[in-house]
């Protein structure tokens, strides 16, 4: 039997292994799921792959696990080229998006499966321990079909983690859990990862989960990585419109660069000069796309005095106010610049201004960012396909209909 | 850390079973059918098996009695044929399983992405049914006859001695049984494997199981329903078969099975009680074997 690679190493991984993907492409008949992907994940890090549904996250994990063969490129785990090895020979375990618990085995047998294959001693005791970690030891003698979706997901987690693999692949492992349990499992996962120093490759479409758990986040779109970095860096300095809108919300503008100094560039947005630090912009001449986060923008009820280092729009008119607990979201229509979103902390009781009020908008020029996209392709604001804008369009259509009736 | 608070105690609840009048009405034809076509001959068979010869009648005239010695006589005379029947049936079933599993796996799993190929291969598996199985078995007798190409070839390469035969040997009978029952094995296996979720196989591979281990610990247990129904559909009729082992087809007197003894007693010797007793013994042994088998393979909770 071909267990030689694991026979001698019948113990847990002492530390995580690094993962390196170079020039990975995966083409299915008539469809390119992954397009020349390069990725380096240092050993012992918590790496999140974030992207919308269908962008190729699962395919990436399957390539790393060896369940899919890349059309081109190499995969290295711990410095060893594993591109041509079979899944069972790779020091990798996966928490499958579909759980894939063996229906003919009990929960305990499921969790002990990997340990038994590697002839690790005390498999049963270790399996019980892993089940206790996900608070499911009391169902260890049941069959998977007798558990709820969330319970099955936690068993899938235990079944992978119990092996302490050098590299753990998690495919949306908390998707079926309710909020409270998800938070708990997030902490649990993070604790295991730091304690043992394993490498986690965590796939999710939940930006909050990626930002709170991961050391490094890679934002994926249509089979490519758009941007990669620490969560704060990604949020503070998005490089593309996709990242700017997938991670939180952004106000985006386009315009011509009219002045450039060593420190900053000035962009003409509908007649208003907007200053962006040179170091924070990807392009420095011609037509460019720039943006600012909604919570960085201040709402003013009077025209502010011109001040160096601050960008000012206005006057504009408030078109929508929505209260959401800690903050209030204002939509402001500014002639020439379009509609902007502003988040304001609720420092006083109730909103500061009402719909229809005349306001000025201002933000510290250091908070702006310049994108790498071609301005023509940049959506003005939240993408039209987002549920939010669909809801707004529906409401407008409904109101028009009511008026006509 | 204790989060037992939200670890809900799930119990699996079955849909409540209602006694339904409609269900009873729908079942009636089936029950009537069973009574008429299964129970009637069975009772008649049991009565016959205890009959004794009519003292004043011709040969073949019997009167109702309770002559249980019929069983002792029949088993005493024919036990080698009973053993042989189960031995041949067992070997043929194992061979059919070994041959059918890869075929069924290929059609049901590997050919999944090519529905046209799948249908074509399935048709090929069923194709033999389009010809009477008597004719097919006779054809094999021709092929394996002493002047046939197979024997000539085997003799030429000295696998078979110059005075050897193929027909009339245990080999040809088991060959015939295996050949004739392969579709009965392949179809139930295919039906199970076609529904096999290959994600479980991937999970096995991800958890360090080699392809062989995945096959042993995941594929086989998950295809157990097909294996059990396939082996039963092969073993039961093969154990009672009297065509393949008949000297008119692939057998000889040294390969006779219990089916041949039943046939001879009914049709030639006109010893109806002996034939009936043998049939009942055959049926009882099969029932016991099947019962033990199904229990051992634990299919109750799989099907
Ligand atoms: N076996 C396959 N054959 C063809 N297309 C596939 C296959 N697997 C995935 N795809 C396609 O590749 C794309 C990426 O899929 P996937 O990696 O599952 O996305 P996600 O990011 O939601 O996990 C999807 O558009 C999907 O339809
Ligand atoms: Mg997916």
TrEMBL record, chain A:
One of its GO terms (molecular function) is transmembrane transporter activity. Keywords: ATP-binding, Nucleotide-binding, Transport. Residues 19-247 form the ABC transporter domain. SMART domains: AAA. The keyword Protein biosynthesis does not apply. PROSITE patterns: ABC_TRANSPORTER_1, ABC_TRANSPORTER_2. InterPro entries: AAA+_ATPase, ABC_SmlMolc_Importer, ABC_transporter-like_ATP-bd, ABC_transporter-like_CS, Mo/tungstate-bd_C_term_dom, P-loop_NTPase, Transp-assoc_OB_typ2. GO terms for cellular component: ATP-binding cassette (ABC) transporter complex. This is ABC transporter ATP-binding protein.
Automatic annotation (TrEMBL), chain B:
It is found in: Cell membrane. The keyword Cell membrane applies. Its main location: membrane. GO terms for biological process: transmembrane transport. The keyword Membrane applies. The chain crosses the membrane at residues 21-47, 85-108, 120-139, 170-193, 214-236, 274-294. CDD domains: TM_PBP2. Keywords: Cell membrane, Membrane, Transmembrane, Transmembrane helix, Transport. Residues 82-293 form the ABC transmembrane type-1 domain. It is a multi-pass membrane protein. GO terms for cellular component: plasma membrane. It holds the Pfam family BPD_transp_1. Coiled coil: none annotated. Belongs to the binding-protein-dependent transport system permease family. CysTW subfamily. This is ABC transporter permease. It comes from Herbiconiux oxytropis.
